[in-house]
Design goal:
about 60% helix, flat, about 100 residues, mainly alpha
Length: about 100
């Protein structure tokens, strides 16, 4: 499974580099602070990340099983919130002129 993910990410990165496309690659184990730090926007961390899920929540989301089963409300909330936060801050951190 990891080799498939690696190959997919390499194809996306190749596309950005070779064809000059713009975009963002989302890595779901990230936190708001890690995304903004990686984007070179450390000055925004305190202002934007105060109410975001923390490292522990990112690790729980990363280890979440991909089995088909009924989710508890708390699981749905964690996964939805984490996915939204990663997408939102990745887009803001790396493409702030649009977001």
């Amino acid at each position: 499974m990891h080799s498939i993910k690696n190959q997919a990410s390499l194809m996306v990165i190749h596309r950005y580099r070779v064809y000059g496309d713009k975009g963002s690659y989302l890595h779901l184990v990230n936190t708001c602070a890690r995304v903004l730090k990686g984007a070179g926007r450390k000055e925004k961390i305190d202002k934007l990340c105060s109410d975001c899920p923390r490292e522990r929540d990112a690790q729980i989301a990363a280890k979440f099983p991909t089995l088909i089963h009924k989710l508890e409300n708390v699981e749905i909330a964690l996964m939805s919130r984490h996915g939204f936060e990663v997408a939102d801050y990745t887009l803001h951190g790396f493409n702030s002129e649009f977001f």
